[in-house]
Amino acid sequence: MRIETIRIRNFKALQDVQLEKLPPFCVFVGRNGSGKTTLFRVFGFLKNCLEHNVRTALNVEGGRNGFKEVVTRGHDHESIEMEIQFRMEIAGHNRLVTYLLEVAQDPKGSPIVSR
Description:
- The chain has 3 helices and 5 strands, in the order ββαααβββ.
- By secondary structure, the chain is of the alpha+beta class.
């Protein structure tokens, strides 16, 4: 499997980030607070979503406040979006796979998978 594109919206410090044409080996450099660690936390968040559920993943990342602590500050009325495109061998062919997750809040404030 080889990741080609990552798009993240409203996940902590990453308000709107798209990384394209990622090489097989990539190094991220930047000043403190620019989102380097948060980028890698995306993968832990997705793992927790798949192994458990979205509510658990939000609580791991944001503690008791869940969604409100994970969504980018000032954007709590918007959804958290993550899209990863990767190449993977499927049925003998190298295929492009897109994984998309969009998490929002229902009117009562409970997290829901909206897409």
